[in-house]
């Protein structure tokens, strides 16, 4: 069995410190909050979509540690009367990241 952890629990840590902490716990996979209600502290969707070098660096940090992304969490209620709800009415918000993480 393989375990993963939702990175929101380590929102107070930088991306690389969070990866080191998760790895020190013996966990090799992370669920990144990439949109919706979560903190999005470690996966800036807009930034990663806009910059290929940042995407490579993002993935390189995982690969250096022998880690992978188990899920991109975009939990949100699209009927929520807010800017976030409006933003996530389209399920394609993070679809362009899928090949980056699993391609």
Q: What does this 3D model show about the protein?
A:
The chain has 103 residues and is of the alpha/beta class. Helix content is 38%, strand content 14%. It contains five helices and three strands, in the order βαβααβαα. It has helices spanning 15-24, 45-50, 52-64, 83-87, 98-102, and strands spanning 4-6, 29-33, 68-73. The protein has a three-stranded parallel sheet with strand order 1-2-3.
Shape: globular
Helix content: 25-40%
Helical stretch tally: 5
Strand order across the largest sheet: 1-2-3
What is the compact description of this entry?
The protein is an alpha/beta fold and 103 residues long.
Summarize the SSE layout with pairings.
Elements (H helix, E strand, L loop, with lengths): L3 E3 L8 H10 L4 E5 L11 H6 L1 H13 L3 E6 L9 H5 L10 H5 L1
What are the salient characteristics of this protein?
single chain, 103 residues, alpha/beta, 14% strand, three-stranded parallel β-sheet
